[in-house]
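Need Glucanase's 3D structure for a figure. Predict it.
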Amino acid sequence: MTSPAGTSRRDMLTGAASLGLAAFGLTAFGLTAALPGTVRAAPYDGNAWRRYAERFLLPEGRIVDTGNKGISHSEGQGYGMLLAVAGGDRAAFDRLWGWTQRVLMVRGDGLVAWRWTPDGGVADRNNASDGDMLIAWALLRAAETWQAEAYRTAAIAIVKALASGLLVEQGGLTVVLPGRDGFRKGDTLVLNPSYWIFPAIRAFAALPGGERWGKLSDSGLVLLSKARFGGFQLPPDWMTLDASGTVGIAEGFKKQYGYDAVRVPLYLALDGYRDPYYFRPFSTLAAKYGGKAVPATVSLPGGTTTQVAASVGMLAVYRLACQLAGAGGEAVTVPPLAPDEDYYSTTLAHLSALAAQSLGIAP
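Structure prediction for Glucanase:
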């Protein structure tokens, strides 16, 4: 697969990923091997996981989104399960998975209701495909880490449900709908670039019958080549794809790059990608603002920036992107996480550190 910019896919896969070790996302958290020419990364610090769990994991097994009125959602459960595996905490993993099964898996189609509120329970039964992917990937990693076939069986069931209901063909590409309901507008699809969780997709492609997931990964790279808007050439949080393969910025959502799309370079890094082509838009944005007062959002295509600054977790992603774009990590200053740092910022910071470890570079 070759991007419009002439960058071949083989140039973007290096090290453990090219050796096939990423099949279950094992390289993503520095658990097996560093890339060629780098020092083996240290295992994820279990103390870091415990600090995370103390802040955001409740005894019943739900992750609290402290920046969003204390709700819980499938995304948070997936992130929590991934970090619990990386931290070697099977008891916490089982609490997270147990709550997810009991409370969120109420749809009857094998997918996860995405939103739960403390005062109303399940508040939206629609699924969010990124949450489903994160949970399934965490289950595959848990199965490999703890040699537990039940986790693998549960993961495969979610992967099959996703493939049957959410993977669709459009404009010659295989894409993933953000949810079962609400993302088809006539002959146009509404997509979210940050729902391409590349290491999870790679893990699913390695399962029996996973060929469509491999196509999804290839299509994600094509879309990231096309979906470049404004002076910084950034992807939007929400985009459209019509039947001819033309991409645009979605109506009905904020026309911006921001809290969703900041995860695009993070997921590429977690999958072992190093091609500067995919990281340069994000490093360019960070460099424009001296790596400190980087705006949280950028309007597209106009380029107007918000006065709200990027969070610590977002800055950690930008530091990683600058390193991979060849700009050097010193281009971005990442302050320590504050004692009251919210769930999303803290999660981005943890995942960025894990990606840096897996790539053998300083976080």
